[in-house]
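Dear Dr. L.,

I hope this message finds you well. Following up on our conversation about the binding site, I have prepared a predicted three-dimensional model of the protein together with ISJ. For your records, I am including the exact sequence and ligand specification that went into the calculation, followed by the structure tokens. Please feel free to forward this to your student if that is useful.
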Amino acid sequence: LSLDTVREFLTREEDTVVFGLIERAKHPRNTPAYDPGYLAGGGHGHDASFAEMFVRESEAVQAKAGRYQSLQEIPFFPFRVPFTLAPPYNFTTELYSAAALVNVNDAIWSMYFNELLPLLAKNGDDGNYAATVSSDLVCLQALSRRINYGRYVAEVKFIGDQQNYTTLIRNKDTDALMKLLTSEAQEDVVKRRVQKKAMVFGQNVTLDGPVETGNSNSSQTSFKVDPSLVYKLYDKWVIPLTKQVEVEYLLHRLD
Ligand SMILES: C=C(O[C@@H]1C=C(C(=O)O)C=C[C@H]1O)C(=O)O
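The resulting structure of the complex is given below.
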């Protein structure tokens, strides 16, 4: 684990996030899928939304298949489901165990449904709720993996500067920790790169003419997901939440 390899992971994860958003944007808002009254009204005895039920049930299957044996993945609904569908794999443990399960999945959940989705999906209802929330699950998992990877970033930064971090952790000085782990130059690179990825991955590909470069006829270019929304997602939510994970991990790094 090094700063370069953790940044490579985050860079590759950007592709997964952007492709996930493109897939979700294919579907309209489909608000009944997020309304707790929808399932209750059908007499299905749920007080959760269809989306929540779908994520919970999907995670239960994936937990059985061993998905959460890897610390890179943290479920939104932690439950003890025996991992029974595949033989165990002996994952290397790069994280400090007392801090390894630090995560901000609750914040990711509410950001995704309350803030991002209204900006991402066009108004409308086509009834394809299962396909829609299935694409929500992919987005949530990608965002969770990316943001909670802040644990690995923090571990690398701690190892690289143990003296300074140890003092700040002992003093529980969260502001100074936040400052020490922040690289504004790196954040700027990340935000501009994800915006560009939204332009490259989200363009319409046709056989006529050259591949759209984004600088010619840009007024006529329409992207499947607004590149400025992807910039905003990282600027307002993904990077701040990643840094929150880094700070919380560090606060437990000497437990
Ligand atoms: C993840 C890192 O830590 C911080 C968070 C960043 C991010 O979430 O992209 C970028 C730079 C840092 O301020 C890093 O240094 O790469």
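In brief: The domain at 3-251 is CATH 1.10.590.10 (Chorismate Mutase, subunit A).

With kind regards,
A. P.
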